[in-house]
Write a structure and sequence with these properties.
Strand order of the largest sheet: 3-1-4-5-6-7-8
Helix content: 40-55%
Largest sheet: 7 strands, mixed
Number of strands: 21
Structural class: alpha/beta
Mean pLDDT: 92
Length: 643
């Protein structure tokens, strides 16, 4: 008897700049198959067919899958619409096809799941490896009884039969690696033109239960680890196969400090050996300490990484933190982490989420000022709160806090949506405490703070005023906004940003013109003024404006004023001057030493300003990197004291 053919659907968008032609390998179905295939009843009766790993034309995808006996769908926000349409097409043309779904996006808590996804025979809840294996084994029987399998929803004429929750895998070492067992070899050989991105798990689980997230609910609370040698071997495999980019999927990398430090050592070794991966993304441990900073420092100074440390706070407001059931580090501990990063010249990012239940306009603005006081001046990433299908915030808090959502179609990086099969994310556009008008004001505030403080135009000025002259950040930026909004160019930027955030909240698309070939969407609109500044050569104009403001509102000693302006003008790279870096500049004041409590302000110092990038890249490439390389502080000088 011929083996049954099983194929998988897990399409994603192209990643990063278009010329890279980069895609993720379909890791989730790969690991599901690698687990099941090790059992004799599976490998003797099933064979792997095809992967749908990108958004191919639906008819082409159908033709790829039409000879399959079983198709597994892995669905999340980036392929929900595609999943529905391809599933309908398969069911229509192959009514006897056995279709199984899994992944975070299927609405497993809702009774109408099979009204939304009528093409599914079964939907797997939560962790899928053991459950999927049991489904395949049961499917081989003449009269399969799927109700005996825990952890699934069965489609019974459009009604969902719930078999309860499945048990979690205790020993992750029972899951073979899809990379090391050759699951993707055929796919990669077939597409040598693709620059593959990889996904790597070193552990599973998250000890937190934030209401906005579907991570904890899907992976449970207790963290379980993969064998360290397996992690090493996967990193080696990815380097050898020239993966440009890898994503560490751990919810809290660094939580096992000694073990994760060894993984960082291996990553550095692989990069030096193969020249890849060139970049990666890591979700760092929430409860950060010196050991985590040491790992980041190692990746930068031994591995040559320009990636920094991301500390996710989501909000600094105690009331909101209580509502979303999240506990951040104490403020003094956050300050310690920030200080260590600044002393080591480590790029620092903090994540905030706009639209969380309980957040007000006042508390939202205060988030920025509290982070500045704590010591973060280089990176604050703002996300719009998302109403994820299986997250508690969507299921339970939405009604309580009067959260209104809008499906937006340009929030997924790489989406480049067309009018067909657009993938949307439902974001929060108003709450009980943030009316639509206040939400727009909060978005404008986020844009303003990112443009001027985080992107390096006024950060050192405001820091000196705060520390040496007791000028509150709130007072400085309120005065500064009132001053610069009178400038025609800045006013046009304010109007542009307000217009497109308004379109985004009302229609789900901002429909923005390209800037130097760069697509502007909901996810990078906040960075677009810096892109526009470089595109329109407004560097001198904006700093002349800042200088006029300082002379009017904060007339400092001339020598200090001149030093601050000289520092800020050289800190934010002017594209037209990028080839002049590195440069050593003398100052009459030790601004960096003073801010880091390592020196007196009124003493001379010399700093080297460097732009450690291709200094001859095109303007279009430079503008593109302002967004795509923002995590490594692209566009801002790396400053080192030389004397």
């Amino acid at each position: 008897m011929p083996k049954k053919v099983i194929s998988f659907v897990s399409p994603n968008f192209q990643q990063g700049p278009t010329e890279l032609n980069a895609y993720y390998l379909p890791y989730s179905p790969g690991v599901i198959w690698s687990y099941a295939h090790q059992f004799s009843e599976i490998h003797e009766n099933y064979e792997l067919g095809e992967f749908i790993w990108r958004r191919d034309d639906l008819q082409e995808a159908y033709d790829t899958l039409k000879d399959s006996d079983v198709v597994g769908f892995s669905s999340y926000i980036w392929n929900r619409s595609y999943t529905k349409e391809l599933g309908k097409l398969l069911r229509k043309n192959k009514p006897d096809l056995f279709i199984v779904g899994g992944g975070p996006e299927f609405p497993i808590e809702k009774e109408d799941i099979f009204e939304q996804y009528p093409f599914l025979d079964i939907c797997v809840k939560l962790e899928g490896e053991k459950t999927f294996r049991r489904i395949l084994e049961e499917h081989l029987k003449p009269n399969p009884d799927y109700k005996s399998i825990k952890g699934i929803l069965i489609n019974e004429n459009g009604k969902a039969f719930n078999t309860g929750d499945s048990e979690r895998i205790d020993d992750l070492d029972t899951i073979p690696s899809p990379y090391l067992t050759g699951v993707f070899d055929k796919l990669m050989a077939k597409h040598p033109e693709i620059r593959w991105n990889g996904t790597i798990e070193t552990n599973r689980g998250c000890p937190y239960a934030c209401t906005f997230c579907d991570w904890g609910s899907l992976t449970y609370n207790k963290i379980k680890i993969f064998d360290l040698q397996r992690v090493f071997d996967e990193l080696e495999w990815m380097g050898k196969n020239q993966f440009d980019f890898i994503s560490f999927t751990d919810a809290n990398f660094g939580i096992f400090a000694e073990r994760d430090s060894l993984i960082a050592d291996k990553l550095i070794e692989v990069q030096k050996k193969y020249g890849n991966p060139r970049a990666y993304t890591i979700a760092w441990a929430k409860n950060q300490k010196k050991e985590v900073v040491d790992i980041v420092k190692k990746l930068i100074y031994e591995g040559g990484s320009k990636m920094g440390l991301n500390l996710s706070v989501q909000t600094m407001d105690e009331n909101t933190l209580e509502v979303i059931r999240r506990k951040n580090l104490d403020t003094n501990k956050i300050e310690e982490v920030f200080e260590m990063c600044e002393e080591a010249n480590i790029p620092l990012y903090t994540e905030l989420i706009l639209g969380l239940p309980g957040e007000t306009l006042s508390s939202w603005k205060e988030n920025f000022y509290r982070l500045y006081k704590a010591g973060n001046h280089t990176g604050i990433t703002v996300y719009q709160a998302q109403l994820l299908e299986n997250a508690e915030m969507n299921l339970k808090q939405r009604k309580m806090y009067k959260m209104q959502g809008q499906m937006v179609y340009d929030y997924l990086v790489g989406s480049r949506n067309t009018n067909e099969l657009r993938e949307g994310v439902e974001v929060v556009v108003s709450t009980r405490d943030l009316t639509p008008e206040k939400m727009l004001e909060a978005q404008l505030h986020s844009w303003f703070q990112n443009t001027f403080h985080i992107n390096g135009m006024t950060n050192y000025i405001s820091r000196i005023l705060y520390k040496a002259h007791n000028v509150e950040y709130r007072d400085f930026y309120e005065k500064f906004y009132n001053f610069v909004e009178k400038d025609p160019w800045v006013k046009s930027e304010i109007d542009r940003i307000a217009k497109h955030y308004g379109l985004w909240g009302e229609k789900g698309m901002i429909d923005h013109d390209l800037i130097q070939g760069m697509q502007i969407h909901g996810w990078n609109l906040i960075h677009s003024t810096i892109i526009m500044l470089q595109s329109e050569n407004k560097h001198k104009h904006i700093f002349d404006l800042i200088e006029d403001f300082m002379l009017k509102e904060y007339p400092l000693d001339k020598s200090l004023h001149d030093d601050l302006m000289k520092l800020q003008r050289n800190y934010l790279i002017d594209y037209t001057q990028s080839a002049t870096y590195p440069k050593v500049i003398d100052f009459n004041h030790d601004i960096f030493g003073y801010l880091q409590d390592q020196g007196e302000l009124n003493q001379p110092a010399s700093y080297e300003f460097d732009f450690p990038e291709d200094k001859h890249m095109s303007l279009e490439k430079f503008c593109e990197q302002i967004f795509f390389a923002r995590r490594r502080n692209f566009g801002k000088a790396w400053v080192t004291r030389v004397k």
